Amino acid sequence: MLRFQSVTRTFEGRGGVCDISLTVDAGSCVAVMGASGCGKTTLLRIAAGLESTSSGSVVRSSEARGALPRSSVAAGAEVAEVGVCFQEPRLLPWRSALRNVALPLELRGVPRSVCRERASAALAMVGLDAWESAYPAQLSGGMRMRVGLARALVTEPKVLLLDEPCSALDVVTRFEIEDHIARLQHQLSMTVLLVTHAIDEAAFLANQVVVLTGVPGRVASTIRVNLSSREPSVRNTPEFESALAQVLQGLHAAALAGGRSHDCQRGPSRGAIS
Amino acid sequence: MIARVSRVGALWSRLWPPTLLLLLLIVIWALAVYSFDLPAYLVPSPSAVLAAARERSDALMWACWITAQSAFVGLLIAALFGVAGGAIIASSRLLLRGAYPIASFLQMVPLVAIAPLLVIWLGYGSPPATAAAALVALFPVLANTIDGLRAVDPTLREVFALHKAPRLARWWKLELPSAVPGIVTGLRVAAGLSVIGAIVGEFVCGYGGDRAPIGMVVMTAMRESRTDLVFAAIALSSMVGLLLFAVVNLIGVLLLRKWHPSADTLSP
Description:
By secondary structure, chain A is α/β, with parallel strands linked by helices.
């Protein structure tokens, strides 16, 4: 489970987020959408621990929502392992695909043979078992992204954070990666936070789409999506069409409601940590 | 097999234009010497240079060998101290701010001015020549190591931060590999400089005699007005430089060919 509690983070002169409260239930996927600069990536970086909050807090737990008392933040409850996929694959160019995927384990002091074994398994999960010894320069953009995904998965995270993982890819490759993500989320029962600009990607992967607006960003609307399946073929069904329409509607509504910039500090102070 | 053939083809296609141009220049040189009747003590003809090289081939080979040794050992010392020193200096911002200007200043001190000092400290012969080679070759390695270590891709730094990599792991698995292309560039520059350094060192601190290094062969030939021999020695000294450069290039290609685009420009 991943929970933001009244999270605020402001920067001098650029994006940031204001008073975000948001829960991603264990095993579900929440997509965050919104115009550039509304703080989507900031939110994800806060969840990854790469950015601090100005106020509010984030709980990452491998347990389900109900099992967690509210005070657990202060008590330092069991923190879930987090996997992150950035916008770019961010691979080390001097390492083969296998050794790139093994990196997070190496940095945790896992023995070398175990590293290789688990990295190899992670590469197989994204269908790259034949490319273990290839270097990033020898791989296509989509393959590199899949190596990045395998690296995020190799630590067997309970929480997976995806920052526009497909924004630099062509549509066919994008579908391919989305299919991998959908399947693996189910297989490994991961909690996923997905930042994206693509409406169909949000509709396909997410149980819930959260739209941010303004600078710094606030939650403008929340749309529930409940596709009956996440098979690739669901993209051709009327059910998917209507999910798309719903998300689009939510985006429109949010654009009408928000968009003005507001001052986070002088706003209503309901964001205090309870 | 096909790849091998095309590689030889590529090598040939890169070699023939400079070879042709060189031959052309030698022909022009020979024609100029004959048609203007230039005196041999000013500009000897190509055939005279070749004859001088043949006549003194033993001495010249020895000279090459001794100078190459000085340059190579000097380059090795520069590589060792340059990389180690660069790593130490780059490790701390304060140290960097303190050491970089001093290193730049020392770089500006002309080698010829230091050479007498080397005689005082190390006497005559190969040791001061080696030291001179190391001194001029040090700075490019040092500077490029520092730059390479500091120019790590910040998005990759974040990957290491995400996994809370300890400092040593960050250095060994991220910063050092990132710096390798820079270090190779520094070594390429240093390879050429080390030969220059060795010969300048020999001018000041070399021994004459049977086992004289290139620098001394040039000096002696000059005093004897053997301009043809001076030419031969100069040509051989650049061969030594070329050889050293080729060795460094080969190491660079082996280190970088899998992942760095500069390896393509390094390889034949």
